[in-house]
Design a protein that fits this description.
Blueprint: H1 4-9, E1 32-41, H2 74-93, E2 108-112, H3 116-129, H4 151-154, H5 161-171, H6 176-183, H7 185-196, E3 211-213, E4 222-224, H8 225-242, H9 257-274, H10 278-284, H11 289-295, E5 302-307, H12 309-319, E6 338-345, E7 351-359, H13 362-367, E8 377-381, H14 397-405
Parallel strand pairs: 1-5, 2-5
Antiparallel strand pairs: 1-6, 3-4, 6-7, 7-8
Helix pairs in contact: 2-3, 8-9, 10-12
Length: 408
């Protein structure tokens, strides 16, 4: 795995670089921030397999990448650095990090999945937020399966494959997955045009019937057919664009920013069916939920969980909150984007929880330029069941706990 030293040598980390200023998410009068937990998707990576898709789906070879399949790229690390600079300014403004120097021991905790991209994202974030402070992330050895980020296989009891399958199918709505595929026909045709470039005869994904493969013990349901393949293909095109590849290489020169935004709907559909339904979200997150609870009340006042898009989608579904990053479909987790859970208190010791989603827009990731004060996308979110008359937009801890842990 590439270490911080390797990343710095590649010129993608900037110890001592000035942090971006921040416009700051307003804190209600009389309240003070005391804990922050961020569940973040890793930065830009290549497809996790080579070739990116099974043979025959595209008429040409997929563009190459400079790192092995699934690893954080140098450009992806730079974009994470830009976001972390902004995060650091926010955390210092809130008083959770010192204005200068290093955080006190034990006050910052960063947990990563065991994939290279999540470990490297965690290290890049730490290096940008607290340079030369020697902070390290917690994670198993690279490549070793981590049950924290893949909750269903590790569940010893309580997982019902039939309920999981039912939850996914119900999320498809009237007519099921077949109806979704019919509604998506124009978008599937556009994707096939990008994949095939006018070639006919076996190319593309449009002829494959879509279906939800039922869950089995220890495994979640899956989306197959045109909608499943479209989610993977659309994500690959998004990553090519986010990486800053020449536009002539993005979708072989046949895809533009408008296509990337429109096609990301396939990724959002996949998560709508397989991640956001409450039963599935709770099962997927069964080992992450305790980390969130610890992060909102424990000795670490800043906790970052460096995971995957599915983890972020799971938490969005569990809390029943929605976001819409510029350049993507609604609720599609963008590389480096995070759900941010903030605990606040008043002078009487009463606590509250705020939920936001923060990220760069797609064009900001593509350019990887430094962020100005009001650059990042940041939106306040309200989980179902939360209501605090004196502080609209916040949850009481009891309301938040119900939203996070109530049985589906």
């Amino acid at each position: 795995m590439r270490t911080i030293a390797h990343l710095a040598a590649a010129g993608i980390l900037f110890a001592g670089a000035p942090f971006a200023s921040s416009a700051h998410m307003p804190v209600p009068d009389g309240l003070i921030v005391d804990h922050v937990v961020m569940l973040m998707r890793h930065g830009v990576r290549p497809p996790t397999h080579e070739p990116a898709m099974p043979p025959g789906i595209a008429s040409q070879a997929w563009p190459g990448w400079d790192v092995p399949p699934g690893w954080l790229t140098a450009h992806g690390a730079l974009a994470i650095t830009r976001m972390a600079d902004w995060d650091g300014a926010e955390l210092r403004h809130a008083g959770l990090l010192p204005a200068t120097g290093c955080p006190a021991a034990g006050t910052v905790r960063v947990i990563a999945d065991s994939d290279e991209r999540t470990i490297a994202t965690a290290e890049t974030w730490l290096h940008a937020v607290a340079p030369a402070c020697g902070l390290v992330s917690e994670h198993p050895p690279q490549g070793q399966h981590d049950p924290v980020f893949d909750g269903i296989p590790a569940m010893q009891s309580g997982y019902d494959p039939d309920r999981a399958t039912e939850a996914a199918r119900n999320a498809a709505g009237p007519g099921g997955v077949a109806a979704l595929a019919i509604q998506a026909k124009p978008l599937i045709a556009r994707l096939d045009a990008i994949l095939c470039g006018g070639e006919t005869g076996g190319c593309g994904i449009g002829g494959e019937p879509s279906a939800i493969v039922p869950a089995t013990p220890g495994k979640a349901p899956k989306l197959t057919g045109a909608l499943g393949e479209a989610a993977s293909a659309a994500q690959t095109l998004l990553l090519e664009y986010a990486e800053g590849k020449p536009i002539a290489e993005v979708g072989w020169g046949r895809a533009n920013a408008g296509d990337i935004a429109a096609l990301s709907e396939f990724h959002a559909i996949e998560f709508r069916l397989l991640a956001r339904p409450r039963y599935l979200a709770a099962a997927h997150l069964n080992a992450i939920i305790p980390l969130i609870e610890q992060g909102l009340s424990g000795p670490a006042i800043v906790t970052v969980i460096s995971g995957h898009d599915a983890n972020v989608a799971d938490l969005g579904g569990l809390l029943a909150v929605d976001w819409h990053v510029p350049g993507l479909a609604a609720d599609d987790p963008i590389p480096g984007g995070a759900l941010v859970l903030t605990r606040l208190h008043d002078r009487n010791g009463r606590h509250y929880v705020r939920i936001t989603y923060r990220s760069q827009a797609l064009e900001q990731i593509r350019s990887a330029r430094p962020l100005a004060a009001d650059d990042p996308y940041e939106v306040a979110l309200m989980p179902k069941g939360c209501s605090v008359p004196d502080h609209p937009g916040l949850c009481t801890p009891e309301q938040f706990t119900i939203a996070l842990t109530a049985q589906p």
